[in-house]
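The data layer described in this paper is built around a simple, fixed record for each protein. Because each token names a local backbone shape, the row as a whole describes the fold. We quote a single record here, exactly as it is kept in our systems:

***
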Amino acid sequence: MPKIEGYRFLESTQNERLGSSRLMLIETFMLIIKNDKMNKYSIFDKIDDNLWHLLLVWFNEALHNSIFQKYFFEIVILMIKHGNEKILLKFFFKLEGMSILHKTYKQIYMNRVLLSILRIKDLYFNLDKIVKTLKTMSYAKMVIFP
């Protein structure tokens, strides 16, 4: 099956906001993944590194966009639960997803204090959910938490 290459039309710049078109794309992507359940989420094997990288860039740019955050974290949780070891290693280490998520966590939770900026609690909750999901997945324990 061919790789998903729709990201070429969505080149991102630091000054550009995530508009409704990008939100619609991320929502569509999330729905495609959710509906791949009958194929045992084999779509994760077809996702190119550039698309994962683009999602991580958008994540970094849209920390206060709760709609994007919701879709992003749903995709990441599905990837953790249903992706294979190769996909996890690629996302968390090759594309530096772990360091990006950790850097974000450090920005919103300093000196044991959760910053009270708008929507930060949702972001903290989702980051915490990813950590808990990683810890519960047996293969993730072997790969990420040796």
Remarks:
- The chain has one domain: 6-143.
- The mean pLDDT is 77.
- Strands lie at 109-110, 113-114.
- Residues 23 and 68 are 6 Å apart (CA to CA).
